[in-house]
TrEMBL record:
Residues 115-230 form the C-type lectin domain. Gene3D superfamilies: Mannose-Binding Protein A, subunit A. Residues 12-47, 76-103 form a coiled coil. CDD domains: CLECT. This is C-type lectin domain-containing protein.
Length: 234
């Protein structure tokens, strides 16, 4: 009986020891697992932190890119607008040069005299009264109106060297002599008709008659004559 008890005791002790060993192993493994879990958690947190930092940087870079794109887009649009303005400017300049060339070519066909703020163009070529009017309009002028003795005297003196007749801007309209303006007509109130003029017949346009010392004479409007345009200086 005693031996049996000793034996049983020995078995129990052995079993107890094994259980303790097993428990110790489990405890150690649990601690190792806990430590590993702790390490993994810390590593995950570090990775997560790094990812968040990178996300933040990426967001900053994306915003910066968007801002740069907006700036580039705005700059491009401004340059396109400037380019468009420059093209228009070049077009306007070309047009002005062409107009100036036209005007220069016209001026080469005559001469310009100046009194006060008015330029007078004395043509070389001879045209009908209506063609002379059109010519004057091309250079922003009109066939000259002579409304007083001062202008009359100035033109007589200037034209006395020419042995030609000159159209001026008066014509017969509805039985009355009128100055043709850029928009209509004004009555001729001051005049310097040569003796016996204006005579009757189909003569309806006023010229400065060289044979009458450039006094006024009505003549046939289709007759080619030299002419005088006038334009106020701008
Ligand atoms: Ca006449």
């Amino acid at each position: 009986m005693y031996e049996n008890n000793v034996q049983l005791h020995s078995v129990c002790m052995s079993a107890n020891k094994d259980m303790k060993t097993a428990l110790e192993e489990i405890r150690q493994k649990t601690e190792e697992q806990q430590s590993k879990y702790q390490n993994d958690t810390e590593r995950y947190e570090r990775i997560n932190e790094t990812v968040e930092k990178h996300d933040s940087k990426l967001l900053t870079i994306e915003r910066r890119n968007e801002n740069q794109q907006r700036v580039i887009q705005t700059t491009l649009q401004r340059h396109e607008s400037d380019l468009q303005d420059l093209r228009q400017l070049i077009q306007d300049l070309k047009s002005k040069v062409l107009n100036m060339t036209d005007e220069l070519n016209i001026l080469l066909k005559g001469s310009v005299i100046v009194k006060g703020t008015t330029n007078y163009f004395v043509s070389e070529e001879k045209l009908s009264w209506s063609d002379a009017w059109s010519f004057c309009r091309k250079i922003g002028a009109i066939l000259v109106h002579i409304k007083n003795q001062i202008i009359n005297g100035f033109l007589l003196k200037s034209l006395s060297k020419y042995a030609d007749d000159f159209w001026i801007g008066g014509e017969l309209v509805s039985g009355r002599y009128m100055w043709k303006t850029s928009t209509g007509y004004e009555p001729v109130s001051w005049s310097n008709w040569a003796p016996g003029e204006p005579n009757s017949g189909g003569q309806k346009c006023i010229q400065l008659d060289e044979y009458q010392y450039h006094k006024w004479d009505n003549d046939y409007c289709n007759t080619p004559q030299r002419f005088v345009c006038s334009r106020e200086q701008s």
